[in-house]
Amino acid sequence: MTNPPKILVTGSAGFIGFHLVRKLAESGQETIGLDNLNAYYDVNLKISRLRESGIAFNPQKSVDGFIQSSRYQNYRFIPADLVDREKILTLFEDHKFDVVYHLAAQAGVRYSIENPFAYTESNIDGFIHILEGCRRSGVKHLVFASSSSVYGMNRKMPFSVADNVDHPVSLYSATKKANELMAHSYAHLYGMPVTGLRFFTVYGPWGRPDMAYFQFTRFILEGRPIDVYNNGEMKRDFTYIDDIVDGILRSGENVPATNPLWDGEDTGSSTAPYRIYNIGSDSPVSLLEFIETIESSIGKKAQKNMMPMQKGDVPATWADISHLRRDTGYEPRTNLKKGISAFVDWYRSYYSA
To answer: Is the pTM value of this prediction over 0.90?
Structure first.
């Protein structure tokens, strides 16, 4: 009888990481979560996510070592920053993880315009520490978070992982493209299996307050006007959190091998054990339809301020998920009405709104 894999999830107090950790822990996987709980958005929400996972964390106290979950016997949490090279490399050396789900990053397209150094420190320096930890300790599969934002100025729809992505429109997207390149170099040099996942506009309960759907819900409930950029002429491939987690887990079980048929053109694979996948709903929705869905779920109309396009934004996203579907059987199952309803129910409960 083989032992179950030992798993590390970085960004485990974040939106996607929190949901992934719970799914892994509930399935009996031995899991360690890592997060630095930075103040990019409300730290109390991150602490609440930890508590929901059975982690009693007090940010006012200095905590060394691991915190055992009171809810899941097989889950422990360690507060750490990706930039702390010594601590990250020691963690890998001590624990010999089988699979690493690297979700920690400095997120946000527009914030990268205001604070670029936060992105190079976390998304570039932090990522090389993860890559080195994986290489030195013999991790069997690294799965890392990329982003649909890497498609930048691409105009061909839907976005395919086989397309060139050399024209980012924000520093955030540039760091995510850099992650893909760095990961490929490690896969090529060391034969280290690596999978990158380009997430498309993830939403759902316990989501990020800086995301548009979160702010729309808050402002509509409070009777405040919402800013609708590009005069509402936007489309997004909104993807519910449960579908995202399903895609992550399917990808984790699908360890990439070399592609002997690689033609030198497909940027989603190569002769190295490396794959890039889109995770989306394959069903883009207009921004105005999205707002109408939130209004319907809340039972209240929004006051709209029609605004021009923001810097760093793109007018549309649409995920070609055929590669992920082919290789893993991934199939998004949550429609927008159901997903928004679940989020609004959570929001009202969490904020007593």
So the answer is: yes
Range list of β-strands (E), the chain: 6-10, 30-35, 67-68, 75-79, 99-102, 141-147, 194-199, 202-203, 226-228, 235-236, 239-240, 274-279, 285-286, 304-306
Residue 196, helix vs strand vs coil: strand
Chain centroid, CA 300 distance in Å: 30
Contact 175, 152 (CB under 8 A): no
Phi-psi map region of 200: left, alpha, beta (phi>0 left; psi -120 to 50 alpha): beta
Close Cβ partners of 135 (under 8 Å, ≥ 6 residues apart):
186, 190, 192
Question: How does residue 4 score in pLDDT terms, banded at 50, 70 and 90?
Answer: low
Nearest to 188 by CA among 253, 259, 125: 259
Per-residue model confidence as pLDDT tens digits over 125-144: 999 999 999 999 999 999 99
303-339 residue pLDDT tens: 998 888 877 677 888 899 999 999 999 999 999 999 9
Q: Is 172 a catalytic residue?
A: yes
Closest CA to 127 of 88, 90, 172, 97: 88
**How far is Cα 328 from Cα 323, in angstroms, rounded to an integer?**
8
CA–CA dist 156, 135 (Å, integer): 36
Query: What is the pLDDT, as a whole number, of residue 230?
Result: 83
Active-site option among 41, 75, 172, 274: 172
